[in-house]
Design brief:
Helix content of chain B: 55-70%
Oligomer: heterodimer
CATH topology of the largest domain in chain A: Rossmann fold
Largest sheet of chain A: 6 strands, mixed
Number of strands of chain B: 0
CATH class of the largest domain in chain A: Alpha Beta
Shape of chain B: globular
Distance between the termini of chain A: 44 Å
CATH architecture of the largest domain in chain A: 3-Layer(aba) Sandwich
Helix content of chain A: 25-40%
Radius of gyration of chain A: 25 Å
Radius of gyration of chain B: 20 Å
Structural class of chain B: mainly alpha
Shape of chain A: elongated
Chain lengths: 509, 320
């Protein structure tokens, strides 16, 4: 038997212009738990999807137990002894546990015998690994932790020797997660190889033997877990990006314009995404929210903007409470002077098939200057769009062009122009430079500073630590839904990185 | 007593095409492909069966041809909604229109009878079958009467329809094929990651749907009637669809739903123009609308929520 259960060599995968995986090499030793860590969008899931036959690599080789393999589909991966527990469970919700386990591996045309056999085998697996599940329970009636167990059993039932788990703890409570780790250790003791994909450093340190770090589609390092540290990994994960210097004077914070008090937001599964968060933003200052993607920043922003209802807590806009728990009306909030540049401009900020001028007033189309009677005043809107195009240097300067045909940076400028020109009281801005070219980044950063100097209260959410540090006057760090600390933007990247990784306590010890 | 038995006998006859079409829809929709083209497929099948039965004089060849036409229409729907990931409702509507137009057009150009097919002789049709002991049982009161009038004396397609009910149940819930078919209608991604082809599973379901629609159409044109007439399905495909929702996509429920709708139709025929005490003459339109009204009322809260297969109507796109 080969030393490596899996060895990936020179794997490349692009989606259009995006290089999701760039020349990846990854050796995974037999009988170990191997962690793959990286921020959201670093390419971890893509890599594992290639291994499981969901995607085909553009180039590169896959070796399983030393043999070179092509994995054209999931069937081939299963045959090679690879099992996968997906982040979003691949279960049929109104089927029983047993039906889900045998699906695709029924072993005969008639179910009765297959179900009988599966029941026996399931009992054996339960005994071997301590994975107890009621085989006749309906999936949708089971808690997520148990559903995940079914996914693991599904893989084991198919004879998986290599088990890939994609962000397995994302939906689990801490005690469920601990139980999962116990199971994984047992599986390892029985000789299985486990690949654990996560963006949580705590998990890597707690359970893995080896760890590989991915960043922006490349594999930056593979280490023995015992020979590395959280600080090390955090730095590798976030990386040292080119620091962009933005000229800005000192802030002159005035009155509180936005106050968030004990805000809690839960997702549809009831997991707290934002957990009892409080802070203030004053006129004339930029408050930056730093954090590894997926720690509640998006939900925080959406709750304040009235898009996602909060569970509990209050938000005051210019001293006036807004109904964040009962579903505030985003249109009304805009009228009251809180504008929002959403994190995902394609999903929320723009209607891509619209022409530029239409997007340039979207959401403000009921304002008097854009109307003539009951109709839109197209001439006025186009003239207005032309003006914004000039001011924000949007290229090409054509209000009749389909929005989808602008580059990412120019699309972002369309959104910024629309929102900033409203002369807001509070500016909420998420990922202002995601997918934006370098030239546009500088321009956008300048504009944000100008907004601050014009006396607006700016709340900035970004996963780019450099951006947070160069723009913000105060930095709040979010981890696991909580604000775990407030720092000045001059704080070192290492210290902020530790906070972002949720290891403040350990660092202090 | 005679009246009741007669009424029930008519009920059975009228429910057969509904039941076949309803089970056809059940296979398709359980696999995640919505099908409002049942009507068109039945109509195409009816025409195909009558045309071939008229030219060859064989009911069995007629049946084969009816099935072939309906399966061909099914495959078009399958290609549009599974392979090309198109809108399943639009494709179904298109099939209804195409079938309504083409059957009349082809009928006129082949037979020149204004869209009808020639009157079929008895030999080219499916005739009633006398079940064994019918003679002997005839004199037994009640039970004998029920056996002779209600159970015996239908054509073979009617028996096929009712046998399809337990068979469908068994296939869906007791075979590997059925497990995968149901899974693909609920969560195709789970099927895909288990290494099974979603496309192939759905195509198979759609083909079965075509076969059953073909039998339903054949029943209409060369068993119940002696030839094809324009628009002879007269909305039965839609009533079958209503029955399917009513039955919550379950085979045994489907049978009862179709019997109920068949019974309403039988009532309508029996009491058409008859002056009833107190009520007076019931308008035909009301009786014809009853199945739909009933579906709406019952769905509105009397039978609880009818939850369709979760992935129904959504083309499967592999993504992460």
């Amino acid at each position: 038997m080969s030393e490596y259960a899996i060895e990936l060599k020179g794997i490349n995968k692009s989606f259009g212009p995006v290089r999701a995986n760039h020349d990846i090499n990854l050796p995974i030793t037999q009988g170990t738990i191997h962690g793959i860590i990286g921020e959201n969008g670093a390419g971890k899931s893509t890599l594992m999807s290639i291994l499981y036959g969901f995607y085909q690599a553009d180039s590169g080789d896959i070796f399983v137990n030393g043999d070179k393999m092509t994995i054209p589909d999931s069937q081939a991966a299963i045959a090679a002894g690879i099992g996968m527990v997906h982040q979003h469970f691949m279960l049929v919700e109104n089927f029983t546990v047993l039906e889900n386990i045998i699906l695709g591996a029924e072993g005969g045309n008639i179910l009765n015998r297959a179900i009988g056999n599966a029941r026996k085998e399931l009992l054996q697996l339960e005994e071997d690994y301590g994975l107890t599940v009621d085989p006749d329970a309906i999936i949708e009636e089971l808690p997520v932790g148990i559903q995940q167990r079914v996914e693991i059993l599904k893989a084991l039932y198919r004879g998986a020797e290599i088990l890939i788990l994609d962000e397995p703890t994302g939906v689990l409570t801490p005690s469920e997660a601990d139980h999962l780790f116990k199971i994984l250790r047992q599986l390892k003791d029985q000789g299985k190889t486990i690949v654990l994909i996560t963006h949580k450093l705590r998990e890597i340190m707690a359970i893995t033997d080896n760890v590989s770090v991915m960043r922006q589609g490349t594999m930056v390092a593979t280490r023995k877990t015992s020979e590395t540290s959280v600080a090390d990994l955090a730095e590798l994960m976030v990386g040292r990006r080119v620091l962009m210097q933005v000229d800005k004077g000192d802030a002159n914070p005035a009155d509180v314009k936005l106050a968030v008090e004990n805000l809690t937001v839960k997702d549809s599964r009831g997991v707290s995404m934002v957990d009892d968060v409080s802070f203030e933003v004053r006129a004339g200052e930029i408050v930056g929210i730093a954090g590894v993607a997926g720690n509640g920043q998006s939900e925080l922003l959406e709750a304040i903007a009235g898009i996602m209802p909060a569970e509990t807590g209050r938000v005051l806009l210019d001293g006036e409470p807004i109904n964040v728990t009962g579903g505030a009306d985003p249109a009304l909030l805009r009228e009251k002077g809180m504008v929002h540049v959403p994190e995902d401009r394609h999903h929320m900020g723009l209607v891509l098939p619209f022409e530029e001028y239409e997007n340039s007033i979207l959401g403000y189309h009921n304002q008097e200057q854009y109307l003539s009677g009951a109709f839109l005043n197209i001439d006025a809107i186009r003239a207005d769009a032309k003006e914004k195009i000039e001011q924000y240097d949007i290229r090409p300067p054509n209000p009749r062009l389909k929005t989808a045909n602008f580059s990412g940076g120019n699309q972002q400028k369309i959104v910024l122009a629309r929102e900033m020109e409203q002369d807001p009281v509070v500016l909420l801005i998420g990922q202002p430079t995601r997918g934006v070219d370098v030239g546009a980044i500088e321009f956008i950063h300048k504009r944000i500073i100008e907004m601050r100097d014009a006396g607006k209260a700016v709340l900035l959410v970004s996963v780019e630590l450099d951006e947070i540090r160069s723009l913000s006057d105060r930095v709040l760090v979010m981890f696991a839904g909580k604000v775990v600390g407030e720092r000045s933007p001059e704080t070192s990247e290492g210290e902020l990185g530790l906070l972002m990784a949720g290891v403040e306590g350990q660092a202090a010890e | 007593m005679d009246l009741i038995i007669q009424l029930l006998d008519t009920t059975v006859r009228l429910s057969v095409p509904l039941l076949l079409a309803c089970l056809a829809g059940l296979y398709s929709e359980r696999s995640g492909v919505f099908d409002i083209g049942l009507e068109g497929k039945m109509l195409g099948g009816a025409f195909g069966a009558a045309a071939i039965a008229a030219t060859t004089g064989s009911a069995w060849l007629g049946l084969l041809s009816g099935i072939a036409v309906a399966v061909a229409l099914s495959l078009i729907h399958g290609f549009a909604s599974i392979t090309s990931r198109g809108n399943q409702i639009v494709s179904g509507v298109a099939i209804n229109f195409v079938a309504a137009g083409l059957t009349v057009l082809l009928g006129q150009s082949w037979f020149g009878l204004g869209g009808k097919t020639p009157q079929l002789p008895k030999t080219a049709r499916f005739s009633p079958i006398e079940l064994p002991f019918a003679e002997a049982m005839a004199d037994v009161p009640v039970i004998g009467q029920i056996y002779v009038e209600l159970i015996s004396g239908h054509n073979i397609l009617a028996y096929v329809a009712f046998l399809m009910v337990p068979l469908t149940w068994w296939v869906l819930f007791r075979t590997r094929f059925g497990l995968r078919l149901r899974a693909v209608g609920e969560n195709p991604a789970a099927v895909d990651t288990a290494g099974i082809s979603v496309v192939w599973a759905r195509y198979r379901a759609v083909i079965i749907c075509g076969i059953l629609c073909g039998i339903a159409g054949t029943y209409l044109s060369i068993a119940q009637s002696a030839g094809f007439g324009r628009d002879m399905t007269a909305g039965k495909g839609f009533i079958a669809l209503a029955a399917l929702i009513f039955a919550k996509w379950k085979p045994v429920n489907a049978m009862f739903a179709c019997l109920l709708f068949g019974f309403l139709e039988a009532l309508d025929i029996r009491f058409q123009g008859v002056e009833l005490p107190i009520i007076g003459v019931i308008p035909v339109q009301l009786m014809q609308a009853l199945p739909y009204i009933l579906t709406v009322i019952l769905l509105a809260g009397f039978i609880g929520k009818a939850i369709p297969p979760k992935a129904g109507g959504i083309p499967y796109v592999k993504e992460r």
